[in-house]
Every structure is written in structure tokens, then in C-alpha cells.
Amino acid sequence: MTIVLGCIADDLTGATDLAMILMREGMKTVQIIGVPDETTPKPDADAIVIALKSRTIPAAEAVQQSLAACEWLLNGGAKQIFFKYCSTFDSTDDGNIGPVADALMDYLDCPYTIACPSFPENGRTVYKGHLFVNDTLLSESSLRNHPLTPMTDSNLNRVLSRQSDNHISNIYFESVDLGNKEIRKIFDQHNPDNTTIFVMDGLNNDHLKSIGSACKDLKLITGGSAVAMGLPDNFREKGLLGSPNLNSPFDAPKGRTVILSGSCSEATLEQIDYAKSRMPTLKINPQDILDDKPVLRQTLEWVSKNTREDGPILIYTSASPTEVIALQDEKNRVAVGTLIEGTLGQLASALQASGFTRFIVAGGETSGAVIHALAIQVLEIGPQIDPGVPWTLSRSGQPMALALKSGNFGARDFFLKASVQINSMEIIRS
């Protein structure tokens, strides 16, 4: 099987989200963690999603990693590159969406590409170039208080113009609503003297499928994962992809289940609140981590006393915006995040050693830390729990099942739903 679509995601949960959508649309998809090299075997797949941890690192490093991933994918046969970022356009004024998009456009010699973070199933839509979260402007949503990438401007043209050296233009929903031919017509009319990024409106899945169809000849696409739902049919039309196969098996390993949450998003905080009365729950005080208290030892002692064989436990560092701001006043926001993520990663490794094989993780940065600590390199994509969040399987070393959730995703009962779902799956291996 030859790779036809190569994807570069700027965080782990976003990569998993994208892989799930491609699987759902009939592409055999494998997720690789980190920048692959010449020693990395090329999986038997239609699409490969490379999960980087490049959203909040210095822009130059994000560019370097993304270009290395792009080169590897092209060498593997990829006909098209997809640069995936969050549906809330998580970025600062310095990047990293703009710098990475610019670098990939230059590397691939693209006269134009798109930027389309819309994900209607999760309440993210773009109207007149403005990003909305559940009918609220991004800048007026709870995401304006994001601890690493506070989102204070809903105008994507304006945000991207501060980051990119390319010309930024808009294609509004009136044109998108007319379908792929109209979108292609606008593409064809772009000024060849200006390399251009078109910010695309998208209000529903039909819009995203039209956008995906219109992009069939682009070397590079940038956006949220949902725009990928229109891509597999492009490859089928070209004879590069067979009929969809939606019956991939998922064999859940035996073992205990733990929920680890570092996300401070409003959605995750609601999920924690719902779970508290339904399972053993421990809050790790982030201040204790900053004060270098024996948090890991104390947590493992609690685990030994509270673990249930037939249900999950929940351990979290998630905090309210007020608590986060207070911590960031003591240390810079990157340092706070790094310390907390490192602790949760160490905890995940210790829990794996004590028999936990099923990990439900909330937060992109937290998921990255956990995957790194567990030394996972390749993930196979399983069934959906909620829009944008599937179960995954690690095939290297000890089999593990992982649900890696973006902080903003999932229904209020997500944690309970995920644990019930994994318990109901047929267990093939121990």
C-alpha cells in the first residue's frame, strides 16, 4: 500500500482527531509520534499522520520539525500534505501556524493554499473570516484565557497576517455554499504575483466537503481536522484509493483504567465535575508541584488504596482560570506547563508499571507528555468516543489503549462514557 496523503499535526490530540476522520472516511491511517527519520519503518497505510509537539515551541523549531516531517512523507510517496492545527486556531502573534504554513508553502512551491479551522460537529465555525465557538466569538469564549495560547482575536485574517509573510485573503460562505467549482474558480483567479493563504468560511459539513473537493490539486492544505473529510474521495477519483473499509478490529488489552487530566479548558472542568461523584478522584495541587513536594509518591499511595478493578480512577491537575493566572504570576506560563506535564508523564509511566493499560488523557500538552513518558511511537486508530476523540492502540511493547482528548472536546459525561466503552470491547490479548 502506498501513502497518498501525508499529514503533519502540531499536537498529539489533533493528530488523533485527524486520523479518526480519515479512518471514518475509508482511508487506512496510522499515526506516528514525533519526527520520523530514515530508521522509521513506513507503515502499510493510505494516510500517515505525524504528531508533533510544535504548537508552543519556538517558531524556528516548529518550522524545522515540520519540514523534516514533510520531507519524510514525500519520500514515502505522499501526493498531498495536510498541515493540521487546532479548530480554535491555537497560536500566538508570533506563530506557530503562520511560520509553519509559510515554510511548507515555500518548500512545496505552492502558489496558494487554504486555512480552514472549522469543525461544526464540535461547535467551531468560521463566518466572514471570524472564528466562532458554539455561536460565540472566539475572543469572547473561555478560550481567551487559555494558559499557553490565549485567543483574544476572532478575525483569522488579522491573526494570520501578524504571523505570515504571505498575502491573506478570504473566501466567504456565499461562495463556499455554491460548491467546489465556485471555490476553484476563485483559486484560479488569484494574483500569481502573490503567494496567498485563503481563509475559508465553513458553517457545516457540506461546506467542508466542498472545500476538500476543491483542494484536490493543491500540494498543501492547512486547517482543522474536519476539512479532511472531503479529501479521500479526491484520491478515489484519481484511482489512488480503493473502496472504504470501515470494519477495522479493535482489541482492547486487559488491565486497569486511569483518567489523567491536565487541561484547564471549560469543557474538561465540566467533565471532571461530572465524574467526581462517579469514581475515585484525586486533585493534585499544581502549587505542590511547583514547590517540589513529593507529589508522585503521595499520588501512587492514593492509587494503591483507591484503584478498582472494574472501574476507572481520575487524577487531575486541571484548575480554574483564576488558579492558573495565580500560578503564572509566580513562574512563566511555559515553565508552569512543563513542570505539570512532566509530573503527569512520570505518573503515567509509574501507573503503567503497576498494571494500568488503559489511559484516558485530557489536554493536548498533557497527552504529549504521557505518550513521551510511555515511549509510544505508533498508534492505530479505533472507534470514536465523541466527535474528534477515538480510542487508539499502541502496538509497540506492552499493548495499551489510549483515548487522547483535546481539552475542549467531549460531552460532559466523556470520562465515564470512554471507560464504559473500553470495558465493552472484546478482549483478544492479555
Low-confidence stretches: 426-430
Question: Roughly what is the average pLDDT, rounded to an integer?
Answer: 91
The CATH topology of the largest domain is Rossmann fold
Number of strands: 18
- State the strand order across the main sheet: 9-10-5-11-4-1-3-2-16-17-18-15-12-14-13
Provide the CATH top-level class of the largest domain: Alpha Beta
Largest sheet: 15 strands, mixed
CATH architecture of the largest domain: 3-Layer(aba) Sandwich
Can you tell me the CATH superfamily of the largest domain? Putative sugar-binding, N-terminal domain
First-to-last CA distance? 30 Å
| Helix-and-strand structural type | alpha/beta
The domain tally reads: 2
Q: What fraction of residues sit in β-strands?
A: 15-25%
Total count of helical runs of at least 4 residues: 15
Form type: globular
Computed over alpha carbons, the radius of gyration is 21 Å
